[in-house]
Amino acid sequence: MSKAPKAPKQKRERAGGLLVLGVIAVLALLVGGGWAAAYYAAGEELPRGAEVAGVDVGSRLPDQAVRAMRRGLADVAGAPFTVAADGGTGQTVRVTPQEAGLTLDYEATIEQAGGGTSWDPRRLWEHYTGGDELDPVVEVDEDKLAAVVDKVNARLGTPPVDGAVSFTDQGVARTEPVTGQGVDPAELRDALLAAYLDTEDRTVEVTLHEVQPDIDSADVQAAVDGFANPAMASPVTLTFGTSPVQLSPQEYADVLSLAPEGGALVPTLDSGKLQALVSSKLAADASAPVDATVQLVDGKPKVIPAKPGVTYAPADVERIFLDLVARPEGQRQLEVPATVAEPEFTTKDARALRIKRKISSFTTYFPYAEYRNVNIGRAAELLDGTLVKPGETFSYNDTIGERTEANGFVPGWTIQNGVFKEDLGGGVSQLATTTYNAGFFGGMTDVEHKAHSLYIDRYPVGREATVAWGSVDLRFRNDTPYGVLITTRFTPSTGSSQGAVTVELWSTKVWDITTTTSPRYNFTDYTTRYNTDESCQATSGAQGFTVDVVRNFHKPGSDVVEKSETITTTYIPTDTVICGPPPKKKQPRPVG
């Protein structure tokens, strides 16, 4: 019997390799089946034993875990904190999580637990061997948290006080800084987050730290040396064209300030106050010039200087002023870009008027009536301070204006067609007469005046004047080489005393005036009249007459008459006025 020949060595090795692969394949099938079983058994559940702040969320689907968290943490997530300062005053602050901007993100917290299907063996191992304690995911609203920091500092800390520098009319004043105490925002944030889901202790302990002011002593000293002391050392001068405006430290002290900015004290100013200060040195309306004038000050004439009109940009003034006040002595004057309008009547012109002394004065008196107090007082107010330049003609009506309620006048008794009637401005002829006599004795040239048609015995006979808006005026011309200032003084009447009004003329005296008055002549008789008007004023009759007044002009201190003039005045009779209808005539008796 023959033996089968042996197989070659190469064939034996190939057969062994196939056997090994087969074994491995079988084993892989066995392990893979278990792996797959583990994968399908775990599903999307969270790892067993996973917890969030003591709430068991393990072996749950993610949405089930979120619901479990919401139920388990409902009370603690909204519970307030008690914030106390270590070493503080013992006071505490109550802060809610919502107030601090803390919000628990349930979904993000569960997501980090590793829920969801996965073939990763590490994920499967974690699922079956147990999960960890999960850190909650908390969202922080930083703006709300910053507000809580401020609240805690306000209650538990002490705010720092910035150093400051201020300006007074006495000079520079400084306020030293004060260090405060407060919590560190990051420390408070961490402490609140750590205590957020603590179910046992809701007290948050914080440490108070020194809080340095933004403006410290070095900043104060730098501001004093670099700006404040130089600013208050001496005046500054702003030049508008040819018009210099000098401002003293006492005047501009309340214009300046040093404001904290970026940890330093920065010079700033009050624009409104600076513009008002500069305007007061120029004209009330900065775009219009103001003429010089003369006013009575403390009982003496005084020249009030002219002010140029200036048009300029306020921003230029502010910029140049801030530059000037910090400059050293000798460099404290700069020109402001401006358009300058010089006044027509300059300070030099006003001085040339030579208004030095009182040249005439006249006073008249009047009985009590409230309308007289109002009307005469208002007219005197409007007349006071009138300036009549050489060659100019004064007009009473132009100066006083129309007698209207808007101009301050009320109804009163006037003479119209020889009869007393009520009209606005009644009584202003009292001031007209007083002004006429002041001009008469001041040597003014009579241009226009009209006496009352009826003589009123409280006025000097033949030397009085009436006025009516639009028809009768009192005018005199200043023919002297000097200006004339008209001033007034008024004393109201009362139920027990007369009123008085005085008009004074101030100038350089050119003439002494004397006067004579003739006897009355050419008398005319009065009649009786009946008046049924509601505004009727009953009067007693008086004769009319004519009278002559002579005005003599003398050089001051001389008895020699240089010239004279005669003023002839004729008054009509003052009729007897009876308010009411005339009496009925008696019928004659029949004869026979």
Summary?
This protein is α+β, with helices and mostly antiparallel strands and 592 residues long.
What would you say this structure looks like, in words?
- This protein is α+β, with helices and mostly antiparallel strands and 592 residues long.
- It has three domains: 36-161 and 176-211, no CATH class; 217-346, Roll (Ubiquitin-like (UB roll)), CATH 3.10.20; 353-579, no CATH class.
- 30% of the residues lie in helices and 30% in strands.
- It is built from 16 helices and 35 strands.
- The strands form 13 sheets. The chain has a four-stranded mixed sheet with strand order 4-3-11-10.
- Helix 1 crosses helix 6 (121-129) and helix 14 packs across helix 16.
- The longest helix has 34 residues, at 9-42.
- The N and C termini lie far apart (219 Å).
- Residues 1-17, 22-43, 116-120 and 122-129 have low confidence and may be disordered.
